[in-house]
Amino acid sequence: MSLDALRAALPAYAKDLSLNLSSLAAETVLTDQQKWGAFVASAHAVGEPAVIRAVEAAAAEAGLAEAARDAARASAAIMGMNNVYYRSLHLLSNGEYKTLPARLRMNVLANPGVEKADFELWSTAVSAINGCGMCLDAHEAELKKHGVPAASIQTALRIAAVVNAVSRVVAAETALAA
User: Fold this and answer.
1) Could you confirm whether 132 is annotated as catalytic?
2) From the candidates 135, 148, 166, 169, which is the catalytic residue?
3) Pick from 151, 157, 122: nearest CA to 44
């Protein structure tokens, strides 16, 4: 399924999502790698198969290298773990857990296979989907150290929001059709 086919498959009540998906696919605030990596990471973070297929196809068609697609997938994978862990530390009133080592492997953070700022941008998008404020703050701080402007960070967050919403509509419509 292509991105256009995905948009066409959205019901009328999700017209705003379709329009947002189209405008974000044409967005020029981010580099193509940053933009399509954010799409891929976000789609994998939500996990809706039809959306993953459409986004992966669009990213490949747009020329996102396989290494970058793999790094975006790695961002969704590692943030799927980190967002739960660090969100829990933030929510627990017992501060003792924050003093303990995480003892979770996170090697991909040090060597993601793409520019560090791109990986941080994708991790920010995934952290937004997963609702981890602690991770959002940490990744946004890293992006600022790399000189990434607020407009770029906002664009990644917009991609995450729209991919999340589209995925939820697709899942709901699939459930209704079953």
Assistant:
1) yes
2) 135
3) 122
Phi-psi region of 47 (alpha: psi -120 to 50; beta: other; left: phi over 0): left
Among 172, 146, 151, which Cα is nearest to 27's?
151
Residue 138 pLDDT > 80: yes
For domain 3-177, the question of CATH label 1.20.1290.10 is answered with yes
Percent of the chain with pLDDT over 90: 97
pLDDT of residue 109: 87
Active-site residue, selected from the candidate residues 132, 136, 143, 148: 132
Q: Does residue 135 carry a catalytic annotation? A: yes
| pLDDT attached to residue 1 | 74
30 band by pLDDT with thresholds 50, 70 and 90: very high
* Residues 160, 126 contacting (CB under 8 angstroms): yes
Joined together, the tokens standing for residue 22 give 């189209």
